[in-house]
Structure formats: structure tokens, C-alpha cells
């Protein structure tokens, strides 16, 4: 699998100071395969690997990292950059600051998810941006399509403009626009017909709509599951219409996300949203960094590796992995974890970077984001005897009172810390064979 591939890359070639032609050649081949496996289109893969190679050569291999880890860092950064973001993954927003109503024109093949996305956007704009939204269907060829838009618009609690069947697409759009103006709508979303394939008549129609409406946003909706084929439709639509953004749908399925890279690279347009479900709440703002991770298939593991360059004692991480493997994770280890997390810039930012499975399991720790609280937890552990740290079960009520007093906290807080430790221990046991070990391997190389 992809994960194994990347793990293999991470392990190769220890103890070299720089990424060179020689030590990266084989790894670059693996990267190329990994991208192809993630469904990135071939020409895009070629362009990307060339770029990655340029960026990688000469890159210093810092500290305990292997050239493999350094290269993975480069790959992650490049993918993120190509998808339009810095590492923080700034989202591209809808540009609706025009004279109201701002028009959003939806484009894309049939089945891409346009109508569903209209509903999602209507809900998003109404709830998150307090906009008054009107929708209209220019998909006059299929009566069911108009009914579908009406349904999702009602679900979104937005307003629906009923199209008259005898009118042309342009007349309908104009009538909706007049209505929106007269009723002070902030946004008019125009749904359109899509064919199953690229079709000249369809392209002409949507181009005419674009000319007539002069939309603030022209969003190309594309099914991520299409993988390589997404590129062809993106190319065709991009050639006909001045697209302002992309919505990548059906990412809740097994789509690997390669389409995001391809479509972005081919059109040069930002991906603004991703669809992650059939329901109206299945819409997320697009984050390049997260998508890069998805394409690499390993959560945000690589950014962890990156942070590790500077701060984590990799040795300690490895020892911890071994302990977890043997099933004797104790309060001393818990303390080590706590202080590492503190070093890495706060629990919350760390938790954000862990693979999602691990994130969910780490929830109890989220309650203790504040560094002050971590220090108190460390204080409580320090107040225990070495034996108690190894076997916290030994702590009876009287000892708990002593420990709490020693650390200057209430017994309840001590109990809370102990139960968090317990939850973490349970979680780590669960992850023993899987993610945790992978994570530690990733850190260690
Ligand atoms: P249109 O022809 O472009 O208007 O596409 P529709 O909005 O009618 O969507 C086609 C199908 O894809 C429907 O069954 C939708 O429920 C489904 N769909 C749309 N977006 C998503 C998504 O993000 N995730 C999933 N799983 N299904 C979606
Ligand atoms: Mg539709």
C-alpha cells in the first residue's frame, strides 16, 4: 500500500547529510508510484516529480532524520504548495463582495454533484455568513432536476425560484435575477444542466449563461472518484469558462484525492470546497495541507516528522513505542508525552496533526490544552513515588491526598489526571499494532 511505500522511503539511507541525485533517485521513483496510486494524472505526476526533485536536491538532512524523511517533507510541502496553500493551508474563500445579488454559477458534468452542492452552499452561506440566498435551476431538460433543487433548497431553508418550463435557460436566469434584486437576496445560485460527457451544446449554453449573468463565482464541480478522467472535463470547462474555483465532491468515498492535485494543476484554479457526503452538511472548506496528507495516505504524519526535526527526542519516542508494544506504558511515560507535547507547540496543534483515528482517541487530552494544566499534571506525577508512577493502581485514598497536597491541587484534579492517563493507556494499547507503531516508525526512520 501507499503507507508501506512511504514507510519504506522513510527508512532508506540513513546517515547522509544532504539529499543528492544518488540518494534520492530510488525514492523519487517511489514517490512517482505513490502519486500514480493516489490517482494523480500522469502528466501532472511528471511535472510534480520534476519539481520535487529540483526542490529536494541540496536540501539538508537535519538531525536524526534520514534522507527519506527529509524527502517526504519536501513532497508534503510541494503537494501542499501545488494545491494552493502554504503549510497552514489557508482556505480559498468565495469572493462575493460585489453589488448584490452576487451570482454563483455552477458548472460540471451530470452526476458531479452540482445540485447537491447548491443546497450545501445555500446552507453554508445562510448559516455561516447570514446571507439571504435564492436558488434557480437552469436544468430544464430533466423535470426531476428542478424538483431536486427545490427539495435541497428547502432543506437549506433558502429561497427557491421556480423556473417556467416554456422559458429558455437565459430567460429563466434573467427572471431569477430580477426576482433576487427585487427581494434583496445577497446571493443567487444558478444550477445548470450537465451532460454525461463533454458536449458542445452544453458548453455553448453555459458560456451564454456566463455572459448574461457575469457571475461573481463560477464553480466547477467535479467528482473526485473520477480520478484521472476528472482532468479531461476540467480542461474542457476551463477552456470555455473563466472558472473562479473548484468544488471536489464525493471525497467521503474511497477517492484518494489525486483528482484534487490534477484538477488544480490543470486549471490553475483554487479548490474552494470539498463534498464529503450526500447530506447538506457534507461540505468542507478545502485545506491543501490536509489533502496533501490524504494523497500521501498517512494523516498529517509528515508534518509531525517535520516538527520532530526540531524538537522531539526521537530516542525517547522509540523507547515509548517499545514500551507500548510491551504494554507497560506508565505515568513516567505519560509525563514524557506531556512535556513533548508542550515542546511541540501546544497540544491542540499537535492533535490537529495526528491521523484522525488517533485524534479521536486523544480527545480526553484536548480538555487540557492549556500549558498551565500540563504543568500541573507533571507536578502531580512528580509528587508520586517511583513505584506509584509505575503502578498508579497502588494509590489509595490517603496517598492521593498526600500527592494532591504535595502538588498543590485538589484530589479531584488528581483523579481526573489519573483517568486521563488511563484513557490514554487504553488508547495506546489499541493503537499498539497499527497507527501508533507506524507513527513512531515515522518519527524514528
Ligand atoms: P448533478 O447532476 O451534478 O446535479 O449531481 P447531483 O447533485 O444530482 O449528485 C449526483 C449524486 O451524487 C447524488 O446521488 C448525490 O447524492 C451524490 N453526491 C453529491 N455530492 C456528494 C458527496 O459529496 N458525497 C457523496 N457521497 N455523494 C454525493
Ligand atoms: Mg443536477
Automatic annotation (TrEMBL):
It comes from the Eukaryota. It is an enzyme of class 3 (hydrolase). Keywords: Cytoplasm, GTP-binding, Hydrolase, Nucleotide-binding, Ribonucleoprotein, RNA-binding, Signal recognition particle. Pfam families: SRP54, SRP54_N, SRP_SPB. It catalyses: GTP + H2O = GDP + phosphate + H(+). Residues 270-283 form the SRP54-type proteins GTP-binding domain. One of its GO terms (biological process) is SRP-dependent cotranslational protein targeting to membrane. It is found in: Cytoplasm. Its main location: cytoplasm. SUPFAM superfamilies: Domain of the SRP/SRP receptor G-proteins (SSF47364), P-loop containing nucleoside triphosphate hydrolases (SSF52540), Signal peptide-binding domain (SSF47446). CDD domains: SRP_G. Its EC number is 3.6.5.4. GO terms for cellular component: signal recognition particle, endoplasmic reticulum targeting. One of its GO terms (molecular function) is 7S RNA binding. PANTHER family: SIGNAL RECOGNITION PARTICLE 54K PROTEIN SRP54 (PTHR11564), SIGNAL RECOGNITION PARTICLE SUBUNIT SRP54 (PTHR11564:SF5). Belongs to the GTP-binding SRP family. SRP54 subfamily. This is signal-recognition-particle GTPase. It comes from Linnemannia gamsii.
